Every structure is written in structure tokens, then in C-alpha cells.
From TrEMBL:
Record organism: Pelomonas caseinilytica
Alphabetical keyword list: Membrane, Transmembrane, Transmembrane helix
Positions of the DUF4126 domain: 9-183
Highest taxon above the source species: Bacteria
Lineage summary: Bacteria, Pseudomonadati, Pseudomonadota, Betaproteobacteria, Burkholderiales
Protein name according to UniProt: DUF4126 domain-containing protein
Segments passing through the bilayer: 44-63, 83-101, 107-129, 141-162, 168-190
InterPro entries, A to Z: DUF4126
């Protein structure tokens, strides 16, 4: 499938956003789409369609799927991936956009990297803060439910960006608004919790 401007913008935004939630699943799905010819990947991303890359992404996606279901382990995993998801999201979006931008590919690649990194950072911060807040609850169901929501949201939004880009954009705007709200509330909650924990220790 050859990408027009609308599809390109939608897929770029979806890649950045999804990388902040499920990086390895995102890489795997993009690789599958490129390998089977569903999307004509630019040269900079064609390596994702390599069987070796897809196999590695599948193993890591499976590990992430399990780690994300275990309270506290999920937060440790998120903490580690702060240094992986955001630059990887920026690189994926830059690779996608620069490959289709012709003579201005380098300049557009920088712009795409900034936007892709910003989307990945927003999604990652919302995920990490929400899961950290959920881990303060003794019941396991909220944690599991949030994890399963992420498992469904990533392939769902990537498919929507590819199949119905005009429907994708308002849903992405809604998701970003919800995430920004969650970040604010969760950080406020975690800061208040930290103060309560420190207070008896300092008394």
C-alpha cells in the first residue's frame, strides 16, 4: 500500500504513541506489515521486516506482556524503558517520515523525531504513572485491567491509523487528553503518598 499524506501522518503519530506503550509489539506489527507487503516501508525501516528482527521483537514483546502483568515488576520495567521507548519512538517516526519526504527528508526527519519522541514520552509517562498509582492498591485487578487495555489499544490504534486515518486523529486527540489528565492526577497522588510515607519517618 502506497501512503498518501493523510496515511503517513496518521501512521507516524500512531508509531510514536504506540512506542510509548508497547515498543516491541509496535516494532513487530510494523515488521509484519512491511514483510507481507501491506505497507511499503521506506528503506530506513525495511530492516524491521527481517525475520530475525521480527523474531527478536516477538520474544521481547512476549517478555513485556508477562512483565506488565506483575505488580511492581511492571513499574521496574517502565523505569528501565524510559531510556528505550522514547528514543525508539522518535527513531521510528523519523525513519518513516524521512523516507517519504524526498529532498527535504533530513529536515522533516528531525521534526518527525521531535514529534514522535513527544508522543512516545506522553504515552510512556501516562502508562508509568498510572501503573505506579495502581500498584499502591492491594487488589490485582486494576493493574491487570490496565495492562490488557494497553495490549488491545496498541494494535487497535495502529490498525485504525492504517485503515481509517480520519477516524484515528480524533481518537488520538482524546487519548492524549486522557493521558495528560492521568499524568497530572497520578503524579499528584504519588507525591501526596510519598509525603505521607516520609512524615512518620521524620517524626
Amino acid at each position: 500500500m502506497n501512503l498518501d499524506a493523510t496515511h503517513l501522518l496518521a501512521l507516524a503519530a500512531a508509531l510514536g504513541w504506540a512506542s510509548g506503550l508497547r515498543l516491541y509489539l509496535t516494532v513487530l506489527l510494523v515488521g509484519i506489515a512491511g514483510h507481507w507487503g501491506w505497507i511499503d516501508l521506506p528503506p530506513s525501516l525495511q530492516v524491521l521486516g527481517s525475520p530475525w528482527v521480527m523474531a527478536c521483537a516477538a520474544v521481547l514483546a512476549l517478555v513485556e506482556f508477562g512483565a506488565d502483568k506483575i505488580p511492581l515488576v511492571d513499574s521496574a520495567w517502565d523505569g528501565l524503558h524510559t531510556f528505550i521507548r522514547i528514543p525508539a519512538g522518535a527513531a521510528l517516526v523519523a525513519g518513516l517520515v524521512s523516507g517519504w519526504a524526498g529532498d527535504q527528508g533530513q529536515a522533516w526527519g528531525v521534526v518527525a523525531a521531535l514529534l514522535g519522541g513527544g508522543l512516545a514520552a506522553t504515552a510512556h509517562a501516562a502508562k508509568a504513572s498510572t501503573r505506579a498509582a495502581a500498584n499502591t492498591s492491594p487488589e490485582p485487578f486494576s493493574n491487570l485491567g490496565l495492562s490488557l487495555l494497553g495490549d488491545v489499544a496498541v494494535p487497535g490504534m495502529l490498525w485504525l491509523a492504517w485503515a481509517h486515518p480520519l477516524l484515528f486523529f480524533p481518537l488520538l486527540a482524546l487519548a492524549l487528553a486522557v493521558m495528560a489528565t492521568l499524568i497530572w492526577f497520578c503524579f499528584k497522588f504519588l507525591r501526596a503518598l510519598l509525603r505521607r510515607v516520609r512524615r512518620p519517618a521524620s517524626a
